[in-house]
Amino acid sequence: MSIVEGGSELLPEFAALTDEVWAALPASMSVEVDATGAHRPTSGQIVAELADAQPTRRRCSVRLFLAPGRARAAAIVNPRLVDAAGKPLGLIGFFEARDDEPAARAVLHAASTWLRERGATSVRGPINFTTWHDYRLIAERTAPGGFTGEPCHPTYYPRLWQAAGFAPVSRYGSYWTPPLAPMHARFAARAAHAVDAGVVVRPMSVGDLPAVYQLAMLGFADAHLFSRVEPDEFAALYTADRAASVAGTSFVAVEDGRPLGFLYTFVAELPDGPAGIFKSVAVHPDARGRNVYQALFARAFEAFLDRGLTRAIAALIHVDGSPAKMGWQDPDRIYKHYALFELTGG
Predict the structure, then answer these.
(1) Is the peptide bond before 154 cis (omega within 30 degrees of 0)?
(2) Sign of the torsion formed by the C-alpha atoms of 26, 32, 36 and 38
């Protein structure tokens, strides 16, 4: 299998494979697109994300590997993602492929070799730079469709990675919540204690983005595979337009004007109707145990009910992490399972 290796000069051909794969994809293998079609990736998006001017791209070492017309992968060293010994975690991202196991294996192994040569003791993927960006693969689904923040790929991708010698190393899940009205009542009962203590929950605004950034850096610091991002990187991910689009369902908790936590949610148009999506929540370490979490969720459930929604999803939870301990992880309410993969056997 002939593999082309390169840098930014290879980007146009590397990115073009996205549109080529999706254009040739049978409908039965293309199920992760939301009702508007906006969720699926495009070649233009890949060019933008891998452009030298992109803030996170500037902070990483990247090498592109391409089996022309068949498969591609980017080998990434992010100096902020290291193991316990300080060695870099080798990342493979921006993977795209036709249903071609030899081609996929060739680009994944070429990328892995490049990463090993640069000191990586483990190789994981798919991760596009950091876990702030697109990562993971869908391992199991119970319903069609998808929403922003989920992996979006043909159904055969996990098989390609496993055939190349990768195995799941971290698992995640999205879960339907119980009925919204009882959940609102449950959270509101404890939220009242926070309100009585002076905590105010209000809609998120564009002006809150600097505070949300600071809360995210503190609140997610212990999260699995967390890597700090700088303000310009955060701004590239969470734009003013994105903040404005979720202002009606996302909230900030403040006390005497000081932000204590935030909850980022939105409404997704799934093929069988709309659903609320609970995507990210962070509470300042000093405010934990004061029912700020409950106050944020109470307000969000209320907002979903006010919009006439009848269901919601707690999204993309690391099943071994702290969010799972909040009670969202229920196998009887699974929407999808996801996995991050690691190269086995050295």
Answers:
(1) no
(2) negative
Intra-chain end-to-end CA distance of the chain, in Å: 22
- Helix, strand, or coil (residue 343): strand
* CA–CA gap between residue 222 and residue 97 (Å, rounded): 33
Average pLDDT on 235-246 reads 85
pLDDT attached to residue 28: 58
User: Taking the CB of residue 320, how many other CB atoms lie within 10 A of it?
Assistant: 12
Q: For residue range 165-186, list pLDDT tens digits in order.
A: 999 999 999 999 999 999 999 9
Query: How far is it, in rounded angstroms, from Cα 274 to Cα 279?
Result: 15
pLDDT digits (tens, 9 = 90+) for 274-313: 999 999 999 999 998 899 999 999 999 999 999 999 999 9
Placement of tokens 């994981």 in the chain: 124
pTM of the model: 0.92
As to burial, measured by CB atoms within 10 angstroms (0-12 exposed, 13-18 middle, 19+ buried), residue 17 is buried
Domain ranges for the chain: 4-172, 178-310
4-172 classified as CATH 3.10.105.10: no
* CA pair distance 296, 275, nearest whole angstrom: 18
Residue 48, Cβ neighbours under 10 Å: how many? 14
Architecture of domain 178-310: 3-Layer(aba) Sandwich (3.40)
d(CA 155, CA 99): 10
